[in-house]
Amino acid sequence: MARKNAFYAQSGGVTAVINASASGVIQTARAYRNQIGKVYAGRDGIIGALTEDLIDTSKESTAAIALLRNTPGGAFGSCRYKLKSLESHRREYQRLIEVFEAHDIGYFFYNGGGDSADTCLKVSQLAEAMNYPIQAIHVPKTVDNDLPLTDCCPGFGSVAKYVAVSALEASLDVRSMARTSTKVFVLEVMGRHAGWIAAAGGLIEDHGVPVVVLFPEVPFDEQKFLARVEERVARHGFCTVVVSEGARHEDGRFLAQQGPRDAFGHEQLGGAAPVVARMIRQALGHKFHWAVADYLQRAARHIASTTDARQAYEAGAAAVKLAMEGHNAVMPAIERISDKPYRYRFGVAPLSEVANVEKHMPRHYITPDGFGITEDCKRYLRPLIRGEDYPKYKDGVPVYATLKNVPVARKLATFDVR
Amino acid sequence: MARKNAFYAQSGGVTAVINASASGVIQTARAYRNQIGKVYAGRDGIIGALTEDLIDTSKESTAAIALLRNTPGGAFGSCRYKLKSLESHRREYQRLIEVFEAHDIGYFFYNGGGDSADTCLKVSQLAEAMNYPIQAIHVPKTVDNDLPLTDCCPGFGSVAKYVAVSALEASLDVRSMARTSTKVFVLEVMGRHAGWIAAAGGLIEDHGVPVVVLFPEVPFDEQKFLARVEERVARHGFCTVVVSEGARHEDGRFLAQQGPRDAFGHEQLGGAAPVVARMIRQALGHKFHWAVADYLQRAARHIASTTDARQAYEAGAAAVKLAMEGHNAVMPAIERISDKPYRYRFGVAPLSEVANVEKHMPRHYITPDGFGITEDCKRYLRPLIRGEDYPKYKDGVPVYATLKNVPVARKLATFDVR
Fold it and tell me: Is A156-299 assigned to CATH 3.40.50.460?
């Protein structure tokens, strides 16, 4: 087998541990020096390949690549850019082949979620469709935890841990304020199509906190919801609500869209949390506080789960090994062997069954009333948030990697990304 | 000196480390067993004293009181309730004396901010004004860091650390997304009257992050602000904005109030962050994300600063020692001896000079353009966020204390808190 270079890129929303996967890919590729030459990272995802904007990761020290494991965000830049079909956008695929050929690239590692798996699948087809020999392996990553065929997705465990810890802490706060002040705390979390992240908020019930979870999977019933909150407040003196940004009404409208346009005709920018908080205030009269965690939750490397950081690294390493075994159009998938003790292994999932498929919360993970999680779900979640994979600190702030990101000399004419 | 019992209560918004002060008061009082009998905690602050709702902390184990040091929220409940003047509300003060007398209370420790210092001062005057012998000592606590006569306030360092760490992490996220997606991230933080918390966001500039800070102390100038953001985006590709909830226009209106009422006549619930984000979108066209940290920031015990947790404990211990030395109407105050190495000691501040006084950011801590912090300010902040005082975890979630909170048997008739 002739030695070929590898291309690696990050795609879609980044996570607290996507760089751990990058570290896994790069360190493992360095170990296969007889088969893999250099690892070129695409600057800003697939756009880096199209524009021949490549980063030579061999210029980074061993220490920098190791530190990458503990650094949030996407060290090489990410993108929201989906390749169209091969038939309609032949020009883009030809360009990819030109760039791959010019830089002797035989391996394509794409680190992303469902949309990115689709891009990776399309690249994998270049081998047959356009006679360019390449192996494309997808490295799973998404805080949404909605990829099929894998027990969980690297990136999710750390967000879940952030949500569980933050919701618990804020609940202890509101509990102390409830007598004369705030009685309800509303926390909005990510997950536009699936409630996995919101589900993590349900874990704090075991810590004596009355919590009501709103999932995208359960159509919102305002009366039932308000009754549930009131019952919790009456009994415990306070209540915490964890609402998914994807929570929606029976007719499909997001809760966050409920707010009418303001006097200037602007769309209401508040998310689901202020809408839910206002609803509670109007119907029940309770003083509230609300938070929207947004990027804080998916960037929170300081509270990353050990399970998650480890799996993210291993997913990168497993992808390289799959390539070495001759695979194409696949993704390393996490297979759970047991809950307690938690054991798992990496298997292989065909991209054709991964791309564009969303895995929602199974109904038996949600309590019959629709506002909490079941013991099955807790059993699923607990090992994923276990362990604290702390970064190092200097002067009170984490030490995160800043790479040199040395560009590879261009060999081709420029190309317009449309 | 006859042995007397002590009363301890928590007041106002709680913090990640107010329970460390409680732990300091209780453990230190236990060491003075010849002078101090039991420590009775007020359930829900001063309301616990008025309603004779006392908690017997002697029923808590040594281990529980030690764990309290690492537990966020207010373990005995807090309140937003300010005693009126002695002249106009004699009835309340007489009730306090009845309760203190019935439970042989000679020491009053009140753990709070500026308003609470005023309550503590009023109680301290009971000795002279109503001939009831009591020593009232204030234990400083406020995330806002706005108490005078103390170099910093327990509670602030941990919020500052949370803001610096979170802003840095989210900035690494937006930096990776900026090519095709989000270019500006807006983080709203607490501090209605003073910009200390927002200032902590300015620390991440030293990590290569372009950050624009909006302080309550600097009247908001929309054109200058937008120009500043645009310059940052043009140069770095992205920008982070840290906005204080107290940021306001020249005429005193809060930015958060800018939104007009909606079609139903409701007040706009979005905070300052969505207002600022929309402004940027409209004027500059950049895609944005925004977060409102709210209670998450002040409850985030998982990322508490070691300096802060230690000072909170020591403030509680110092308060008890001041009482033992015969003081009344005072507060232990932190006096900074040097920045580097960071050294401090506890002095004594008279409550008459503390109550109802707010300490704002000095102008020389804010850069001339009004959007950042100076080297003086960084020198001030750095030691306060230093060190990671991690709690213990079980199954991925912190182990926080839950006290038994055994009530003391009531001896008096009930009393209506108005």
Answer: yes
CA dihedral B325, B329, B334, B336 (to 10 degrees): -90
For residue B111, the cross-strand partners are B10, B139
Chain A hits for B395, CB-CB cut-off 8 Å, are 382, 385-386
Confirm if A108 and A117 have CB atoms less than 8 A apart.
no
Sequence-distant (≥ 6) Cβ neighbours of residue A53 within 8 angstroms: A42, A43, A44, A47, A407
Apex B77 CA angle, B332 and B152, nearest 5:
30
Residue B127 binned pLDDT confidence (cut-offs 50, 70, 90):
confident
Beta strand residue intervals within B190-259, DSSP E:
211-214, 239-244
Q: Which of A56, A118, A144, A308 is catalytic?
A: A144
Task: Read off the amino acid at residue A90.
Answer: R
Q: What is the mean pLDDT of chain A?
A: 94
**Residue B247 · residue B214 · CB < 8 Å:** yes
Location of structure tokens 């949370």: B162
Give ipTM to 2 decimals. 0.96
Q: Contact at 8 Å (CB) between A137 and A109?
A: yes
Domain boundaries, chain A: 4-141+303-355+389-398, 156-299
Sheet holding B288-292, edge to edge: A211-214, A239-244, A184-189, A288-292, B288-292, B184-189, B239-244, B211-214
CA A38, distance to chain mean position in Å, is 27
Closest CA to B110 of B135, B73, B75: B135
Task: Report chain A's C-alpha Rg in angstroms.
Answer: 23
Sort residue A172 into left (φ over 0), alpha (ψ -120 to 50) or beta: alpha
Tell whether A185 lies on the interface with B, counting CB pairs under 8 A. yes
Catalytic site residue B144?
yes
* Pairwise CB contact (< 8 Å): A388 & B388: no
Q: Which CATH class is domain B4-141+303-357+388-398?
A: alpha beta
> Token pair of A14, please?
């980044």
Res. A264 pLDDT band, cuts 50 70 90:
very low
pLDDT at A248: 94
Q: Does A277 touch chain B (CB under 8 A)?
A: yes
Residue A99, classed as helix, strand or coil, is helix
CA dihedral over A318, A319, A323, A324, signed as positive or negative: negative
Asked if B274 and A277 come within 8 Å (Cβ–Cβ), the reply is no
Query: How many CA atoms lie less than 13 Å away from B194 in the CB half-sphere?
Result: 21
Note the pLDDT of residue B217: 96
Report A:381-410 residues touching B (Cβ under 8 A).
382, 384-388, 390, 393, 395-398, 400, 402
Closest-CA distance, B59 to chain A, in angstroms, reads: 20
Nearest CA in chain B to A240: B295
Query: What token pair was written down for B200?
Result: 């902590």
Residues in chain B, total: 418
What's the rounded Cα separation, in Å, for the pair A11 and B95?
A: 65
- State the Cα–Cα distance between residues A119 and A110, nearest whole angstrom: 8
Helix (H) or strand (E) segment spanning residue B373: none
- Cβ distance A173 to B73 under 8 Å? yes
Show the tokens assigned to B403.
Answer: 């006290």
Give the pLDDT band (50/70/90) at residue A356: confident
Nearest CB partner across the interface for A44, out of B81, B179, B277: B179
Cβ under 8 Å to A: B residues 231-250: none
Give CA–CA dist B163/B297, Å, rounded: 7
Nearest to A332 by CA among A68, A147, A180: A147
- Check whether domain A4-141+303-355+389-398 has CATH 2.60.40.10, yes or no: no
Task: Classify B10 in phi/psi space as left (phi over 0), alpha (psi -120 to 50) or beta.
Answer: beta
Q: Are A4-141+303-355+389-398 and A156-299 in the same CATH fold? A: yes
Cα separation, A85 vs A90, whole angstroms: 8
